[in-house]
Each structure stands twice: as C-alpha cells, then as structure tokens.
Amino acid sequence: MYDVEKIRAEFPILSRQVNGKPLVYLDNGASAQKPRVVIDAITQAYSHEYANVHRGLHYLSNLATDNYERVRGIVARFLGAGSEDEIIFNSGTTEGINMVAYGWAMPRMEAGAEIILSIMEHHANIVPWHFLRERQGVVIKWVDVDANGALDPAKVLDAITPRTKLIAVTHVSNVLGTVVDVKTICAGARAKGVPVLVDGSQAAVHMPVDVQDIGCDFYAVTGHKLYGPSGSGAIYVRKDRMAEMRPFIGGGDMIREVTRDTVTYNDPPMKFEAGTPGIVQTIGLGVALEYMMGLGMDNIAAHERDLRDYARTRLDGLNWISVQGRTPDKAAIFSFTMEGAAHAHDISTILDKKGVAVRAGQHCAGPLMDHMGVNATCRASFGLYNTRAEVDVLIDALELAHELFA
Ligand code: PMP
C-alpha cells in the first residue's frame, strides 16, 4: 500500500509553512525535496565517515571509498545497466551531456555532420550541440512535436541521413510532460547505425527505467531531481561507446601514470572521473535511489498517474487556463498559461502567497517556447509525495489569481 501521508512525514521540509500557509511543493521538475534518510546519510558521512576517496590507504579513506563506490552498483540497478562499469558519476545531467559532446561526439563530428534533436529539449541538451555547431560546423536538425506535444518516433527516424552521427532526445519533457517512445527511436536508429543519447532527467524520477530494454547508448540522470543531493548525478554509457569515448576533464584519479612526456589513463569508468568527486553527494544519491526503489518505481508511477489524472481533470475545469502538452500518457508535469494579461511570473507570485511553489518562465526550453508561440508558462510538476488535496490548493490559488487579473 502506498501511504502518501507516511511518505510525506519522511520529508522534513514538507511540514514547514511558506508565507503563513502550509507548503504545497509543486516544483519537483526543477528540484525535488529530500527524505530524512538522505539528509541523515549526508550528516553521517560528514560526521563520522569522511575522507577523500580512492587515494589513501587509511581506514576513513577506505570506508569513504566503499560507501562511494557502492553507489555505482545502485545506479546500475536503478537504470537496469548490464554492469556498474557502465556508470560514470558526475554533477548532473548537464555535465553528463557535455561529457558526451566533448568526449564522444566532438572527435567524430566533422563539418556537415548532423545531430538530431527534438524541439522539446532542455538547454542542457541543446547548448553543448550548439558548441559543436559553432566550433566545427555540425548541423543541428530539429524534429517538431505535434499540437498535443507528442513526438512521432517515425519523424525522428525519417530525419536520419548518411551524415547523422547522433540522436539526442529527452525521455520526458520538462515542460510538457510528454513521454517519448525512446525504445522505438533507439531500435530504428540502431538499425541505421546511429547512436542515441537519452536525457533521462525527468523520466527516471517518475517511472521505472531500463536502459537495456530501451536500447540507448547514453542515458543521463541528475541526482537532485531524484530526491538526492544537488551536485550528484550519473550517466550510463554502454560499454562499446565508453571504449570509443575520450576523457573530457583531465586530472587526478583518472590516470594510471603520468610522466613528463606521457600519460596513461585509468580503466573506464574512472578514466572519465577526474579530480575529487562529489563524495558525499554521490553517497546521498545512492540512499535516495534505494529509497525510491524501496517504495517501488511502479508504485511511484501509479501514484503520480492518479495525481496527473486528477490534476488534468481539475485544470480542464478552468476554461481560462490553457495547458500545454496534452498527450494522454504524459508525466505529472503541467505547463499552463492563463487567459488575459497575467504573466506567468505574476501568477506564480500569487500562488506563492498561498504557499504553492511552481516554476514560471521558459523552463530552459527556448526552442519549444518559440514553437508553442508563448514567452513563458507556469509549471506545476508533481512528485512522489504530492496529494490530491494539494491539487485542490493549486486550483483554489489559480482561481484567486484569475479573479485578481481577469
Ligand atoms: N534535462 C532536463 C529535461 C531537465 O529538466 C534538466 C533540469 N531542469 C536538465 C536536463 C539539467 O539538469 P541539471 O541542471 O541537473 O544538470
């Protein structure tokens, strides 16, 4: 049984008030709150078990290394990777995608080489490719979504030409909630010899993910959205692609030997993890993923489907709200605009007065905003601890905003 009240009690911040009202936290798409077990693990690590990893031969260094390295297996299990050696730790999705851009794509993408992106991508999965466009003449090909925000896998595959070197696509849109059929994209791309990078930042939070079943080459996740610490993250890189990738950042820990004239590298995945990593962040990430798996990813997904359906029905009852992204099986992420002059920022300010935290703006998705013809939206994004009663508070607060701005 999924006991949401019991779960809520495990997140200390959820019992606080904001502006004199109980907090209704609906900004999970930006970052999720942390359960007590994660906060305690961070305190424990710094209070009793901290030292640098991989370096010392002393007790605390070995302990910290064990605690840190054990997370590789947890991430591998969470993502369904075949081996923990296919998991590279990093500070989050942005670093993960940049690592692929610099380490894998840059050396293989000459002028005129093409990369296919969906119009829904987050800037983290756009700007690194713009770097390659600016610096070496790579061509970015965009695939649009339809009026409901659906991405047709056939359109993505049709965009492949002999010059296509990579498809980089999100699994779930951070703006529309659209769930992309990445498995079909990967199967079709593989048949044509084109690798696929999947941005899993928003997907891995809401649904079970199995990278082997999806058949992708790269899958990036970010810890702070997964109820873990900010500054933690990981990328799955399939073994064959890891062998093709060159290191992106050089420094300690990623080398085997350095002399005046030569350098030899550590084995992957360490080869891609230069310098002192986010030791405690990663340990916290491991605890967060174990927490989610303990609740059960299927159970979390079912709870959020219920919230999604309830929120959709209630929002549809407000005929002065337009929801962007209307695919039936979307994640519980709702971007919307209000009829009339009210700017998204003004709406979110009114909601904040009622204790309701949402995000307003472009959501780091400029091309999608252009495509939709809006300059900003409000976004309510739900997490594993949200409730139907919180949807009701959101609706009441929106009604107040409408009265004020109409
Ligand atoms: N991709 C998507 C779809 C996202 O929602 C985000 C975070 N908003 C990112 C990438 C970037 O994640 P981070 O800022 O944690 O690197």
Describe this structure in words.
Belongs to the class-V pyridoxal-phosphate-dependent aminotransferase family. Csd subfamily. This is Cysteine desulfurase. β11 and β12 form a beta hairpin. The protein folds into 2 domains: 136 residues, Aspartate Aminotransferase, domain 1 (Alpha-Beta Complex), CATH 3.90.1150; 255 residues, Type I PLP-dependent aspartate aminotransferase-like (Major domain) (Aspartate Aminotransferase, domain 2), CATH 3.40.640. It has 14 helices and 17 strands. By secondary structure, it is an alpha/beta fold. It is globular and about 70 Å long. The strands form 5 sheets. The chain has a 7-stranded mixed beta sheet, with helices on both faces. The protein has a 4-stranded antiparallel beta sheet with strand order 13-14-17-16, covered by helices on one side. The model has no long low-confidence stretch (mean pLDDT 97). It binds 4'-deoxy-4'-aminopyridoxal-5'-phosphate. The site of 4'-deoxy-4'-aminopyridoxal-5'-phosphate (PMP) has 14 residues, from α4. The site of 4'-deoxy-4'-aminopyridoxal-5'-phosphate has 14 residues, from α4.
